[in-house]
Amino acid sequence: MATVASRGALTSLLGALDRPGPLIILPHDNPDPDALASAAALKFLTARLSRKEALIGLGGIVGRAENRAMLTYLNITLVPVGEVAFDGDTAVVLVDTQPGRSNNSLPEGVVPVAVIDHHPAYDDYRRVPFLDLRDQYGATSTIVTEYLRESKLVPEAKIATALFYGIAAETQDLGREATAADIEASHFLYPYTNKRRLAKIENARVPREYFRVFREAIERATLYDKVVVSMLGEVQYPDMVAEVADFLLRLDQVEWAAAVGTFGSCLHCSVRTIDREVNAGDLLQRVLGSRSAGGHDMIAGGRLHVGDDPAARERAAAMVRDRLLGALGVDPAVGQPLVG
Questions:
Q1: Start and end residues for every CATH 3.90.1640.10 domain found in the chain
Q2: How far apart are CA 81 and CA 105, in angstroms?
Q3: Residues of CATH 3.10.310.30 domain(s) within the chain?
């Protein structure tokens, strides 16, 4: 298993990528700003330093308005994984995810050339030539920003904007699980960002349907002492589940917020907390299984395949809710509606 220190990491990465064949950068499915920014910046670096044009693969969809605005205003092009040939000559770089996780579309049996992530190691990746896992960082974009600084290249405005927003979104403007490295990276990037495009992304326009979904999320939320859970049913895009969990954590009575919803044949669960005594990622792995969930101290997410039968989906969602409440020591029978 290859591990790297923060200094000299870019040189090691470029050495691992120095091979014939196409290059695919693969973030996790339904990529968030941190994953999109990291992938876009890696594509920029490999093009400039290795004269190697990479494709960014897309598993799932980009649904959240801010994320779609990133693609539009920062000219990030994604290729559906169904159109990507993962053959023997293809080099794959996994970004913001890891091999064997349920949240990415890396085909079984394909060993990536590189894995870059800010989550803890979920396995022993001995066969991966380049491995850079820094779970002490708040965002994968921070890791890639250090590669950019090591390169001595002047950051393009769109790349700097992407990375800056990736860090800001992942750490809630440096207020959630941000470290000195995240702060330093943000300070480095900000002078190079396009402030107008950044504002367009942060204040992305949303359709009328968005407000209906949030109204229903509030109506379907139940308060269990210090925990609030919203059972969303079918959602328009998977990121909506995380968006609702973030929103509900603003409730001043709670320490834990969760949202559960289905998209396609999968059930998605997002958990947020202000409780420093319990690790949200560890807790959700106990609820969904170690391969189906992950996260950090204050934020976690996961998904389960539940099929297409409506009754089975409803039972699975109730099971996840009850197991989550049980893991937090809360009786599911004591819940009351968040609003009347």
A1: 9-202
A2: 7
A3: 209-337
Taking CA atoms, 306 is separated from 43, 292, 316, in Å, by: 35, 12, 7
pLDDT in tens, 306-323: 999 999 999 999 999 999
CATH of domain 9-202: 3.90.1640.10
**Which residue's entry shows tokens 């050339």?**
113
Residue (of 137, 145, 194, 151) closest to 49 by Cα position: 151
Query: How is the chain split among helix, strand and coil, in percent rounded to 5?
Result: 40, 20, 40
Per-residue pLDDT reduced to its tens digit, 256-305: 999 999 999 999 999 999 998 899 999 999 999 988 999 999 999 999 99
Are residues 267 and 260 in contact, defined by beta-carbon separation less than 8 angstroms? yes
CATH number, span 209-337:
3.10.310.30
Residue with tokens 């876009």: 40
In this prediction, residue 7 carries a pLDDT of 58
- Which of 161, 190, 154 has its CA nearest to residue 45? 154
